[in-house]
Amino acid sequence: MARRVQMTGRSGWYLRVLEPGTLAPGHIAHLVDRPHPEWPITRVSHLLYHAPLYTGELAGFA
């Protein structure tokens, strides 16, 4: 699965659960916090797996 994520850039399960509970059809999930909105998973994935030599941009993330 990790190889498929790297090759396709697809993601969607990188979440943090703050309170356990149950979601059912019709329930609404809310985004609580996005500490680095300029760094979506797609951008980080691209830099790590498709442009690994471009470290200057990654240095700004730390």
Fold blueprint:
Blueprint: H1 2-8, H2 41-49, H3 55-59
Low-confidence regions = none
Secondary structure class reads mainly alpha
Helix content: 25-40%
Radius of gyration, in angstroms, nearest whole number = 15 Å
Biggest pleated sheet? none
Shape: flat
Mean of residue pLDDT values: 78
Percent of sequence in beta strands: under 5%
Strand elements, count? 0
Q: Helices and strands, in N-to-C order?
A: HHH
Separate helix tally: 3
> How far apart are the first and last residues' alpha carbons, in Å?
26 Å
Gist?
With 62 residues, this protein is mainly α.
Task: Give structural notes.
This protein is mostly helical and 62 residues long. The chain contains three helices and no strands. It has helices at 2-8, 41-49, 55-59. The longest helix is centred in the last third of the chain and has 9 residues, at 41-49.
Annotation keywords:
62 residues; mainly alpha; flat
